[in-house]
What we know:
Blueprint lengths: L2 H15 L2 H10 L17 E5 L5 H9 L4 E5 L3 H10 L6 E4 L2 E2 L4 E8 L12 H6 L5 E10 L14 E5 L5 H8 L8 E7 L10 H10 L2 E11 L5 E10 L3
Parallel strand pairs: 1-2, 1-7, 2-3, 4-6, 7-8
Antiparallel strand pairs: 5-6, 8-10, 9-10
Amino acid sequence: MSIDLYIIRIKKAGRILRSPRLLLAFFRYGVFAGVEHYSVLKPGFKTIVDIGANKGQFALACRERIPHARIISFEPLKAPAKKFKTLFRNDASVCLKEVAIGPKTIRSVMHVSAHEDSSSLLPIGPNQIEFYPGTQEKNIIEVDVAPLTSYLMPEDINSPAMLKLDVQGFEMEALKGCEALIEKFDFIYCECSFIELYSGQKLAYEIIEWLHHHKFNLIGIFNSNYDLSGQAIQADFLFKQKFI
């Protein structure tokens, strides 16, 4: 694990210790809130679409930071989805769809990692295992994949709205699955890689180019992660729609 990742985790722990709600989520449900994303979670957001929700780490940070936002999350793996639903069972403004988002409605193979939040619809590559030990494939299963329009209508997305993607190399396909509704989002927040961690994934420059074509400009890079030589591995990218 890189030094940058250790620093991020230490900072996360410090923020969580200051919040009774987040402490309870950690000790009772084992969910470590994604507080490293606080800087992009603005109080005015009305809708957040959370693709790659896992156990609810990002949704929990959203709920803490933006208590009145509607959160629509997507997670195809049953074990983390079960924990998510338990965590938010009393929150009517949070819903979970147990499906992955992609351009077509299909059944597809999910490569399940020994660390479940590193699982992907793409094969786990050697760089991922080298830079993040313990994330090797432990199993493969089939999951449902569908476009975002299978679950949301344009009127379901109230502005200001954010689309968040954390899909372990499947970013381009997930974005294509959101393409019909992409203009409804004011911001897109997406984890991207500078090197190939999952076989066949599109890299950061390709995601930036695709989103620029769809009138989204890159306005911030957060939570950057580097190897010991100083080479960038991955980061969280924030894009804003360019309104004409």
